[in-house]
Amino acid sequence: IYFMIYLGILLAVLAELKYIHSVIVGQSKPNFLAWGIFTVSMILVLVSSYSLGARDSLWVIGMFTLLHLITTIIAFRFRVFSITLFEKILLVLVGLSILLWVITDNAWTALLINILVDTLGFTVILYKLYLHPKTEDVSAWFISFIAYGINLISITAWTPQEYLVVISNMFWIGLLLVLSLRKPQNKKSQNL
Asked: Are 132 and 191 in contact (CB under 8 A)?
């Protein structure tokens, strides 16, 4: 089991480093706000999952959280920075999830809201990919998908706090991969 956890962590690091490299060389065009939302949301998922007793899934989620923070910092430099109404709503939801957790003292509330926020964060990237195909590094996302898959296999206690985030992220990354393979309809949609 520890081998699988370490392999998942290694793949998480590899995926994020690959993505960071693709951003620096101009292959990927990160949405700064989406990555900021992912980072805050993942921190809250990590903390709420831990307080609910999750342990097996925390290693890879924790590593992705740290790496998302690094990616967010890099995305600030090489970003697609536009704040739409939808993204403002996501920011409000992240804030509400923190407030609801404090008010209710219920980690489940925070976990479920932040899975929703993470899901909505993926929609920001999916929308960007729909408008501008080929602006994400498919191989980096594929490695992330495999890392989450290995994390799923390494879970020993099948409780919702262990598998909900992992399965949700695998689903959205899988959808992102499918959308990434789409060919641009014209030259204009390729450029951002």
From this structure: yes
Nearest to 146 by CA among 162, 166, 120: 166
Buried b (16+ CB within 10 A) or exposed e, 165-187: bbebbbebbeebbebbeeeeeee
- pTM metric for this prediction: 0.80
- The dihedral built from the CA positions of residue 66, 160, 87 and 41, taken in this order, carries a sign that is negative
Residue pLDDT, tens place only, 99-156: 887 888 888 887 888 888 788 778 888 888 888 888 888 899 999 999 889 988 888 8
Phi-psi region of 185 (alpha: psi -120 to 50; beta: other; left: phi over 0): alpha
Predicted pLDDT of residue 113: 81
Tokens of 130: 């729909």
Report the DSSP beta bridge partners of residue 80: 31
Extended strands (E) in 88-190:
none
Which phi and psi (to 5°) does residue 46 adopt? -60, -50
